[in-house]
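Retro notes, item 3 of 5
We never archived the inputs for the alpha-D-galactopyranose complex last cycle. Fixing that now. Sequence and ligand:
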Amino acid sequence: MKKTKCRKRNLDFKTKYNYKPIFGFAMNTAEFFKDFKRSFTFIALFFLYRDYIIRFTLFYFSTSCFSPMILADKDPILASLSDKFKERFGRPATFLGRAPGRLEILGNHTDYNEGTVLSVAINRSARVAAAANPDAQDGMACQLYDIKGKSARRFRLDALDRKRPRDWSNYIKGIVCEFNARGYSIPAFDMIVTGDVPLSAGMSSSAALEMAVVKVLDALSDSKLGWLEQAKIGQGSENHYVGANTGLMDQLSSLMGREGQLIYSDFRSFEVKNVPIPTGTSFVVANSNVKHNLTNEYNERREACEEAARIIGVKALRDVTPAMLEKAKSRLSDVVYRRAKHVVGEIDRVEKGSQALAAGDIKAFGELMSISHDSSRYNFENSCDELDTLVEIGRTLPGFIGARLSGGGFGGITVHLVEADAAQKYSDVLAERYLAKTGVNAQVMILTAGDGAELIRA
Ligand code: GLA
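Structure as it came back at the time:
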């Protein structure tokens, strides 16, 4: 009965428009829209749902099989990786991954103290292309190639504990171990890597690589992990394989960045929010070119924070207010007190900074950045002469709003919040004066906030 009705409707439609509908949709759109009522309904529906339609279309084209065309415009380096993979391994890649570096804007060494951070993902990324290769040597052999460093590595999935000291491949092998530890098995794979995040500079080139690798290995193993677990896999690789007892901020920022937005993250509840960057401002980033080796000093700082929390009798420094710390001062050694003072102060500054941003008070936000640097310098002692020099020069320049070291410290970068109109001149003079004072060339860049990590089917 139903079928007959439907056939009749199709026949009427055919007679009226002189063509046949397919699944209720007309194929000849010009004819179809001759019917005023239909056109009107379509247009009304489009306007009603236009946000969803646009979002879906953008999402579809950025992740679908059409993406290589779009990708060539959006990220030519990533688009070129498919060909480079084929040149190197003689077969096509199946997945491409891109993940950005990050800048820490406020909240230094607060992540592993279960505190809060304001950070951004930057418009510089690590990029990888990969494909499974289960046929290679009993399905256990993996090959890696770093295009920039022109270095190749091979390892076996059943000999992951064989580490090369201080080698880039450790980050990737550590990630495979972390997947395995969670019960996901990674097939043998080949991978090429490249990127434009400055290395060992405090912009988290390693977390960027980790997150790009996690994205493609998650797809190759069909693990379908959520963002928090993906971030923890990267952190696990650093903590358990590389041996740096770092927090989760770098990986989280690399995943959760949004163009033009800061990332506010809470490392106890794992609540993450994007907050607009104040209009009319730019981030000038100066690489002091002092290479930092996080591992020893970083781990030492973390132990001091944990000791402070233990003595005060709380789970983490997140639970300590400035007043509580002052009360406990006599029970802490001078060094442990100053380390805790930095972290407790930073957590407080992130809250005040967020309020200043919400109120549009950029000047107050900049002052908090500058206080943060001084606290690093005198309390946490993770600054160095070169970083102090960059901040001091910045303070004398037109357009300066605030500046501080960013990331682990002991070298690396300073981040300067600057009036956008003054940013280029500010950068030039900063580089000039730094060279004159230290004899070292700083790499000074104006960076913008970009989107977080993405996976693309090659
Ligand atoms: C490094 C670590 C992060 C964080 C910062 C300092 O970047 O990887 O987890 O602790 O230092 O805030």
